Structures are given as structure tokens and as C-alpha cells.
């Protein structure tokens, strides 16, 4: 007689379900982030968005056409004046910009993570599950930082699938959390 055998087996069978139910912070297509920080004369703008919205696809380019499309998209992201408008009176000059395409570095890792999250991730990636983000950083030096009291995003007209950017700003007078979109492209402070 082994009366304890059955309950023990039941316990072991129940375990894996709870262990496997992990939260994964998948990115949401159409939704990106914009971070703003002003330190003295230096204004930093960081744009972070799904490659699906900024390039048009998220996998590593497979054809010459995709390579060209990606190269052009990355080139466009280096043109800060195509993306943002700052008050002329602040006399801001772009000093540095960097565009990071995470597709190459994160392909394998991201594909693994996305598989575990198929049901929560509702956009179309039928042939694969690769996701990648693009992060672009822009550093301006403003001669009259006290005149810097608004930022208008002109980027929405170039990226029609990008619906909104969550704004996080380290600037006096700007609410901590804000959302910018094609219909609300300006933040003032
Ligand atoms: Zn994606």
C-alpha cells in the first residue's frame, strides 16, 4: 500500500503550467517612445520604435530591395530636421546622432522570446517571429536654451503606421508622462 503516491503525482503535473506562464514585454507595433532631456545647453532626444513602423519590416533584409529599403530608412532617421522641429529662437544645432538597428544583434534572442508569447502578440508575422526595435539618439546644443519651450514632431507624416509615441521628459514644466501622435504632435512647456 502506498497511499501517498497519487497526490504526489498530481502535484508534480500541476507545476509546469505555472512555471511556464511568464510575462514578456513584447513591443506593440504603431507605438514607440520618445525621451527628452535638457542639461544646460544640451538637449537629448531619443526615439525608440518598432522597426516595422520605421523600416517596414523587422527581419534581417532578405532581398536587395529590402536591403535598400532598410538603408534608406536608416538614412532618413539620421535627418533630424525631418523628424523634429524646435523653436528657431533657441538656436539649437544638431551635434551628434546615432541610429541603432537592433535587428542583427537580437534576431535569435528575440525570435525565442516571441515564440513563448504568440497568443499575446497579435500582429502579423506569419513566416517568422522576429522583432526588432530601432533606437535613434540626437544630441543638440542650444545657444538660447531658455527659449526652448516646445517640440513638434514632423515624423508622423513619414511613418503612417506609427500612431503614437509615449513621451518621457526630463525638462522643467513637462508632465512626466505624455503622448504624442499625428493629431497631437506638439509638446509645449
Ligand atoms: Zn514586432
Automatic annotation (TrEMBL):
One Pfam family, short name: ZrgA
Biased composition (Basic and acidic residues): 99-112, 118-131
InterPro entries referenced in this protein's UniProt entry, alphabetically: ZrgA-like
Signal peptide stretch: 1-21
UniProt keyword list: Signal
UniProt feature coiled coil, ranges: none
Superkingdom of origin organism: Bacteria
Record's protein name: DUF2796 domain-containing protein
Naturally occurring in which organism (per UniProt): Pseudaeromonas sharmana
Amino acid at each position: 500500500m502506498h497511499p501517498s503516491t497519487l497526490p504526489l503525482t498530481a502535484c508534480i503535473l500541476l507545476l509546469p503550467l505555472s512555471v511556464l506562464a511568464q510575462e514578456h514585454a513584447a513591443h506593440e507595433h504603431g507605438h514607440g517612445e520618445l525621451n527628452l532631456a535638457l542639461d544646460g545647453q544640451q538637449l537629448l532626444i531619443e526615439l525608440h520604435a518598432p522597426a516595422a513602423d520605421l523600416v517596414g519590416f523587422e527581419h534581417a533584409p532578405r532581398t536587395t530591395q529590402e536591403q535598400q529599403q532598410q538603408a534608406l530608412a536608416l538614412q532618413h532617421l539620421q535627418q533630424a530636421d525631418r523628424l523634429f522641429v524646435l523653436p528657431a529662437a533657441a538656436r539649437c544645432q544638431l551635434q551628434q546622432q546615432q541610429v541603432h538597428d537592433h535587428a542583427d544583434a537580437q534576431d535569435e534572442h528575440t525570435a525565442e522570446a516571441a515564440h513563448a508569447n504568440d497568443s499575446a502578440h497579435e500582429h502579423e508575422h506569419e513566416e517568422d517571429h522576429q522583432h526588432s526595435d530601432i533606437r535613434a539618439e540626437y544630441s543638440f546644443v542650444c545657444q538660447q536654451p531658455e527659449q526652448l519651450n516646445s517640440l513638434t514632431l514632423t515624423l508622423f507624416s513619414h511613418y503612417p503606421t506609427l500612431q503614437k509615441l509615449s513621451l518621457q521628459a526630463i525638462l522643467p514644466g513637462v508632465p512626466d508622462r505624455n503622448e504624442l501622435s499625428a493629431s497631437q504632435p506638439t509638446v509645449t512647456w
